[in-house]
């Protein structure tokens, strides 16, 4: 059984980004810059936002942090986004999800300039992905592809089962895998799928993105399959100094012995998500800087 270490893949990505960033600064005199907007004080969101900041700092990317209080109005948020859209020193804009319920996430995303939508959430980027045209691709599915490529795990002709149908992971993941060049046969399952186990057991590659801790058990996988665990769930654990531990959507301990390869949590897909965000920000900066010239 092979452990697909996201950390190792991310390090390679960061090496390339480091030299791209240095070359960019050399050429333009300013760094690729990411603006991160967080509304409210959700602890998990705060820790992700912190991770993104750290990545920017360690690469020498510019970083703008906007912490808005939970009562921020829709108009105030949209105004900030418009300011950042028009700020030539900002290349990527990310609004941390989920937003408090009084804010309309779809409207917020639609208002981010497509060229600065480094999350790949804007409908135009989502549409371009579906028709195989260039654009920003959601960081988590992009990270999964990088892991598969790094470990030379081909999807061609393979049955890939995606568990989960979110706009951010499940749908773009399925769409990427079925594209010409990837050539997977894709099945998407979700909470209403009947006889789920019968389907997941057919998977050569199983991608778990349902957000339920330890959902995928031993009886759901085929011997020798490849399992990609996208889940990041906090479960209470008083024995840990943070008071919780991270578990995936896969019951790793019992599933791993049956796999050809599997991603761990933490240290798997999660770290790739941030690496891909940096890669998208680099891409945004290059495209915007070229347009300015
Ligand atoms: N607009 C938006 N874009 C996002 O990309 C986005 C978001 N909203 N909302 C929340 C999710 C979640 N997410 C993660 C990023 C990194 C780790 C990560 O680095 N995880 C580490 C562990 C981190 C830890 O120890 O807490 C790991 O898996 O090894 C996890 C999760 C990005 N998200």
Automatic annotation (TrEMBL):
Its catalytic activity?
(6R)-5,10-methenyltetrahydrofolate + H2O = (6R)-10-formyltetrahydrofolate + H(+); (6R)-5,10-methylene-5,6,7,8-tetrahydrofolate + NADP(+) = (6R)-5,10-methenyltetrahydrofolate + NADPH
Is Transcription regulation given among the entry's keywords?
no
Q: Which Gene3D superfamilies match?
A: Leucine Dehydrogenase, chain A, domain 1, NAD(P)-binding Rossmann-like Domain
Q: In which pathway does it act?
A: One-carbon metabolism; tetrahydrofolate interconversion
Tell me the superkingdom of the source.
Answer: Bacteria
**Keywords annotated in UniProt:** Amino-acid biosynthesis, Histidine biosynthesis, Hydrolase, Methionine biosynthesis, Multifunctional enzyme, NADP, One-carbon metabolism, Oxidoreductase, Purine biosynthesis
Q: Which SUPFAM superfamilies match?
A: Aminoacid dehydrogenase-like, N-terminal domain, NAD(P)-binding Rossmann-fold domains
Q: Which residues form the Tetrahydrofolate dehydrogenase/cyclohydrolase catalytic domain?
A: 4-119
The cross-references to Pfam families, in alphabetical order and at most eight, read:
THF_DHG_CYH, THF_DHG_CYH_C
Q: Which residues form the Tetrahydrofolate dehydrogenase/cyclohydrolase NAD(P)-binding domain?
A: 138-286
Q: Which E.C. number(s) belong to this protein? A: 1.5.1.5, 3.5.4.9
Q: Which residues bind NADP(+)?
A: 164-166, 232
Query: Does Hydrolase appear among the keywords?
Result: yes
Q: So what family is this one in?
A: Belongs to the tetrahydrofolate dehydrogenase/cyclohydrolase family.
The function of this protein is: Catalyzes the oxidation of 5,10-methylenetetrahydrofolate to 5,10-methenyltetrahydrofolate and then the hydrolysis of 5,10-methenyltetrahydrofolate to 10-formyltetrahydrofolate.
- Oligomeric and partner information: Homodimer.
What name has this protein been given in UniProt?
A: Bifunctional protein FolD
Q: Which organism is it from?
A: Sphaerochaeta associata
Q: Which gene encodes it?
A: folD
């Amino acid at each position: 059984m092979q452990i697909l270490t996201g950390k190792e893949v991310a390090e390679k990505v960061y090496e390339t980004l480091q030299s791209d960033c240095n070359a960019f600064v050399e050429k333009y005199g300013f760094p690729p810059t990411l603006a991160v907007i967080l509304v409210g004080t959700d602890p998990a969101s705060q820790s992700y936002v912190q991770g993104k900041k750290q990545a920017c700092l360690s690469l020498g990317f510019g970083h703008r942090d906007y912490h808005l209080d939970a009562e921020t109005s829709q108009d105030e948020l949209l105004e900030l986004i418009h300011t950042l859209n028009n700020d030539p020193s900002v290349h990527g804009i990310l609004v941390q999800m989920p937003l408090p319920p009084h804010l309309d996430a779809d409207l917020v995303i639609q208002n981010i300039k497509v060229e600065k939508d480094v999350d790949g959430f804007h409908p135009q980027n989502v549409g371009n992905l579906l028709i195989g045209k260039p654009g920003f691709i959601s960081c988590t599915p992009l990270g999964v592809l990088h892991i598969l490529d790094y470990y030379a795990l081909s999807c061609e002709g393979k049955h890939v089962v995606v568990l989960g149908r979110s706009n951010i992971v499940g749908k773009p993941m399925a769409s990427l895998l079925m594209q010409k060049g990837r050539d997977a046969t894709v099945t998407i399952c979700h909470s209403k799928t009947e006889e789920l186990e019968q389907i997941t057991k057919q998977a050569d590659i199983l991608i778990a993105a349902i957000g339920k801790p330890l959902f995928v058990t031993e009886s759901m996988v085929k011997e020798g399959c490849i399992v990609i665990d996208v889940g990041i769930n906090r479960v209470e654990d008083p024995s840990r100094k943070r008071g919780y531990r991270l578990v995936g959507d896969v019951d790793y301990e019992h599933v791993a012995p049956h796999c050809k390869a599997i991603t761990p949590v933490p240290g798997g897909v999660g770290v790739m998500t941030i690496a891909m965000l940096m890669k998208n920000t680099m891409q945004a900066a290059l495209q915007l800087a070229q347009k300015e010239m």
